[in-house]
Structure formats: C-alpha cells, structure tokens
C-alpha cells in the first residue's frame, strides 16, 4: 500500500490518533518510523529515508524483504483454496509437516498455530496432558531461565524470565519456576567456562529435586537466549540439561522461535549440541514473517499417548488461523529459498565475518563483550570494564539512535531485567549481501568511535 495522497505529516497524525504501538512509551509524542517499502535487507520510510534492518524486523525476516516468489506462493494458494481448518487437512499443511520432519531429522507430529506464544502455550498444554495420561498426573510445573522470553500470553509470559515484561500483569499462570542461565561474560573468574556451565545445569537438577521431581512436567529453553541478551551457552550446558531432563522424566521443550531456520548457522539452534528435544516450537523464520504461522513439533511417543479412544484423552485445542493454507505455502517457499541460496551456511559465514570485524570493539571503554552464534550478535555495553557495571539506558540508547541516524537499525534487550538492558543486538537477514555486511560494520565502528 503506497502513500498516495498522504503527506508524511498526515500519516503521522493519523497514526498518533489511532494506533497503540507495541512496547511504546510515548505514542502521542513520538514520530513512528512508517515503513513504506522494503527490499532485501533495506527498509524505506515515509520520509524516503532508507535503513538497513539489522534486526530483520523482530528477529524474523530471515530471507529478506520483497521476495516476489513468496507473494506469488501466497497468491496462488489463496486463489486455489483459501481456508481449511486444521481439524481437517490441506495440501500445504501436509507438505510442510513432512518437510519440517526432514529438517528435524526425526519423526515429530506437527501442530500448527499462529505465533511463537501460541506454539509455547500448546507445548505447555500438551506436556501437562501427556503426563496426566501417562500415569504421572502430579507433573504440572515448568522450569525456564531468567532473562529468556517465551511469549506475551499469560502462560508463555509466566515462562518468560524477564520481570519487566511481567510487572503489573501478575499473577500469571501458576506452576512456572525459574533458574539462572549461563552468562559466560559474568561467570566467576575462579571457574572455567565448562565448570560454570555445568554448575548452572546442576542448579536445574537442584530445582527439580527441591520442588519434588514428580511435580515437574517440562523445561523450556532457547538454544541461545536471544531477545534476553544473546547469552550463548557452552555445549556442555545444553547436553547436561538434556541428561538431567531424561533422568528425571522432565520433557525438554526447545523454543526455536528465533534460533530456528538457519539463524545460528544450523537448521535449528539445538543442532549445535548433541540433544534431541521432546518438543520443538517454531515461528518467525518459519515464514520469514511474510505471513503468521507457528508450529509445535511433538515427538511421536508423546503423541501416541493422546491417540486413543478414551474419553477426553485427545488434545482439545483449536485455533482458527493456525496452519492457514497460504501461510503453509509461504513457509514451504521460504524453506525452498533458504535451501537454494544455502542461507543457513550463509548465516554461519556472515556471523564469523561480523565477529571478525567487531571483536575489536572489546577494547572500547564501554564495551564488555562481543558475542555471536551464527548471524545473531550481542554487544554488551558496560559503564566500567573492571566491575562490569551495565551501561546506562542513556548510553545504550545513544548508540542505537546514532546507528539509526546513520541508516542502520539495531536492537537491544529492552524491558527485560531492570538494570540489565545493556546488550545491543544484531540479527540481520540471512540473505544480506557482502555490501550490507560492510555497511553494518562501518556504521557500528563509526558510531562507537564517536562515543569513546
Ligand atoms: C524465543 C521466543 N519465543 C517466543 C516468542 C513469542 O513469539 P510471538 O511474538 O510470535 O508470540 C518470541 C518473540 O519474540 C521469542 O523471541
């Protein structure tokens, strides 16, 4: 939709009059960036300014903007058969489920929904019902990590470990417990990375035991905590967590909403480790956000516990839009593009290059740590490198603002844990060109230089 007959000023006024923006503090005064066109990694706004989108929207536009074949896939499917609920079936849903199982290298049952939050809610409901019907009806609690985000609905928010996202909305769904994640930058100096990661994993086991293991239904984790500050575990952590879950009958739910679909340099983030999740949730990069779609992939042996004729033992959950045929068709096209262009490998290559270029920032007075897993990077800003005191909001905001003024959109772990919203985030489209990467690097270096 082009801005024909609308001056930028009238658009802004109409926006301010009518739209309550997500996460926004001052809608009435703030001039929003009204995106009017986007192609590749670049967005144009209502004033004709261009920006490289170093966040892929909300960590989601993995194949980049403006792909005609994605629009065509949606158009063709909408024309042929626009809707069928997932109580029945349709061709794109069947093809996509088969493809996802190929990608997961296993046999999962694919449950479709609309968003990452939905996918996690479905995972929690399935896990609780599974234990009820599997002779362990006392298992209802979930463990997750502080600092991680799992969604905005009341259950997914309860799993989220970011108090600023919960404050004033509580009480949330009960039965959600939290443990600290490994934060290697802030580990005790006396410990090696491996010792520290193993200790963090053992804290999960302690939690399970102290809470009475027969009450724990599942553990949800992202392979890398993304929106909560790009916290990258050592592989020993994830593998130990799997072992602990297995030992105590706790289902391992892997939230691949951001890490999936190539972002970390593997098809799914958990594939960096020797683990096999019981449930995998996906959204965002599944369609590169061209249309809404999410998936809860559930291991067959869990599904089997639902697949009988006993009264009320089926999964009594429906959503109108989940598995929308056009969304599934777009997801299939998205995966085809990723494969044709080898974008998962590209994420690894671009991530390595980005780290190679930006690691030198660690000698900047206000940068404590630069870290990445594939093409998602965190730059942790501090006031003092010795004490690692997190940088102030003002200092972090100034870097983000100056990057934008120079044509680069970057993100941060905003509104997560009070005093710890000090980590800049970069998560550009995996289809970014070498020139795009050079642009990102040059803007970031320039802005940090101005802020020494
Ligand atoms: C790791 C993770 N899980 C779940 C969600 C929730 O997804 P949605 O916003 O589609 O509900 C998000 C959203 O940012 C996320 O980053």
UniProtKB/TrEMBL annotation:
It comes from the Bacteria. The keyword Cell division does not apply. Keywords: Aminotransferase, Pyridoxal phosphate, Transferase. Pfam families: Aminotran_3. InterPro entries: Aminotrans_3 (IPR005814), Aminotrans_3_PPA_site (IPR049704), PyrdxlP-dep_Trfase (IPR015424), PyrdxlP-dep_Trfase_major (IPR015421), PyrdxlP-dep_Trfase_small (IPR015422). The keyword Transferase applies. One of its GO terms (molecular function) is transaminase activity. Signal peptide: none annotated. Belongs to the class-III pyridoxal-phosphate-dependent aminotransferase family. This is Aminotransferase YhxA. The gene is yhxA.
């Amino acid at each position: 939709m082009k801005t024909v007959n609308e001056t930028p000023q009238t658009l802004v006024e109409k926006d301010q009059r009518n739209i309550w923006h997500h996460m926004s503090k001052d809608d009435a005064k703030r001039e929003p960036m009204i995106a009017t066109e986007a192609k590749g990694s670049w967005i144009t706004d209502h004033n004709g300014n261009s920006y490289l989108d170093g966040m892929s929207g909300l960590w989601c536009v993995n194949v980049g903007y403006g792909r005609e074949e994605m629009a065509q896939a949606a158009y063709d499917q909408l024309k042929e058969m626009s809707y069928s609920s997932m109580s029945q079936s349709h061709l794109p849903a069947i093809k996509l489920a088969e493809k996802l199982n190929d990608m997961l290298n296993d046999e999962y049952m694919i449950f479709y929904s609309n968003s990452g939050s939905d996918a996690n809610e479905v995972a929690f409901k399935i896990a609780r019902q599974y234990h009820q019907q599997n002779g362990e009806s006392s298992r209802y609690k979930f463990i997750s990590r502080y600092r991680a985000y799992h969604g905005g609905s009341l259950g997914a928010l309860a799993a989220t470990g970011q108090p600023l996202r919960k404050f004033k909305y509580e009480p949330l769904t009960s039965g959600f417990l939290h443990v600290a994640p490994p934060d290697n930058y802030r580990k005790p100096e006396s410990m090696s990375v491996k010792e520290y990661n193993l200790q963090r994993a053992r804290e999960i086991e302690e939690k399970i035991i102290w809470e009475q293991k027969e009450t724990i239904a599942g553990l949800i984790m992202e392979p890398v905590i993304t929106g909560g500050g790009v916290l990258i575990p050592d592989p020993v952590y994830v593998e130990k967590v799997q072992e602990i879950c297995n030992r105590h009958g706790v289902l391992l739910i892997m939230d691949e909403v951001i890490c999936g679909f190539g972002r970390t340099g593997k098809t799914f983030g958990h594939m960096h480790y020797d683990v096999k999740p019981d449930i995998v949730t996906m959204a965002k990069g599944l369609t590169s956000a061209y249309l809404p779609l999410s998936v809860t992939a559930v291991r067959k042996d869990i599904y089997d516990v639902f697949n009988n004729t006993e009264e009320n033992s089926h999964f009594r959950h429906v959503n109108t839009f989940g598995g929308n045929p056009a969304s599934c068709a777009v997801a299939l096209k998205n995966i085809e593009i990723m494969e044709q262009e080898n974008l998962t490998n590209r994420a690894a290559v671009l991530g390595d290059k980005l780290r190679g270029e930006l690691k030198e920032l660690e000698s900047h007075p206000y940068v404590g740590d630069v870290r990445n897993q594939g093409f998602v990077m965190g730059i942790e800003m501090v006031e003092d490198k010795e004490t690692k005191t997190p940088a102030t909001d003002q200092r972090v905001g100034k870097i983000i603002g100056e990057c934008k003024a120079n044509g680069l959109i970057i993100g941060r772990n905003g509104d997560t844990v009070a005093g710890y919203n000090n980590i800049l985030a970069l998560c550009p489209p995996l289809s970014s060109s070498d020139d795009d990467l050079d642009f990102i690097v040059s803007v970031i270096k320039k802005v940090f230089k101005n802020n020494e």
